[in-house]
Amino acid sequence: MKENLKWFVLNNGKKLKQYEISTLILNMFNDKEEITIDDIVFKIDCKKTDAQRLTKDLCTKGLLERANDFNRIAIYSKKSNCLLADLLTPKSVYKNFKVKSRTVVKHLIWKYLV
């Protein structure tokens, strides 16, 4: 799967695959650090369009979060790994648990409410 990914050429002439540059971008982020596209371009030394494409791809995969500043500059941060937040979102609840059967008892609900 990793063999058919796109190659990216950095400004210093070095060729890297998409997953290699994506790991470089993810390693730049600390726990609460917020980075803009210009900072990513400066640290990795790549084209701005490539950095935008890769960060958008990481956001769609759920590894990064995007927030807009008041100047309409996109700020990216690493997604927090909070167990409680993962359990409370509907997608993760259905992935982590298997529902064996469902029963709805209407008369018990009315019994407790009255």
Q: Outline the low-pLDDT stretches.
A: 109-114
The chain-level mean pLDDT equals: 77
Task: Give the overall shape.
Answer: elongated
Strand order of the largest sheet: 3-5-4
Q: Can you tell me the CATH topology? A: Arc Repressor Mutant, subunit A
Number of domains: 1
Order of helices and strands: EEHEHHEEHHH
Structural class: alpha+beta
Radius of gyration, CA atoms, in whole angstroms: 21 Å
The tally of beta strands, per DSSP, is 5
CATH-level-4 superfamily name: Winged helix-like DNA-binding domain superfamily/Winged helix DNA-binding domain
CATH architecture descriptor name: Orthogonal Bundle
State the CATH class. Mainly Alpha
Q: Total number of helical segments?
A: 6
Percent of residues in beta strands: 15-25%
Instruction: Sketch the major β-sheet.
Output: 3 strands, antiparallel
Describe the structure.
With 114 residues, the chain is an alpha+beta fold. The chain has one domain (2-81): Arc Repressor Mutant, subunit A (Orthogonal Bundle). 47% of the residues lie in helices and 17% in strands. It has helices at residues 18-28, 37-44, 48-61, 83-88, 90-96, 106-113; strands at 7-9, 15-17, 34-36, 64-68, 74-78. The chain has a three-stranded antiparallel sheet with strand order 3-5-4.
Give a topology summary.
Blueprint: E1 7-9, E2 15-17, H1 18-28, E3 34-36, H2 37-44, H3 48-61, E4 64-68, E5 74-78, H4 83-88, H5 90-96, H6 106-113
Antiparallel strand pairs: 1-2, 3-5, 4-5
Helix pairs in contact: 2-3
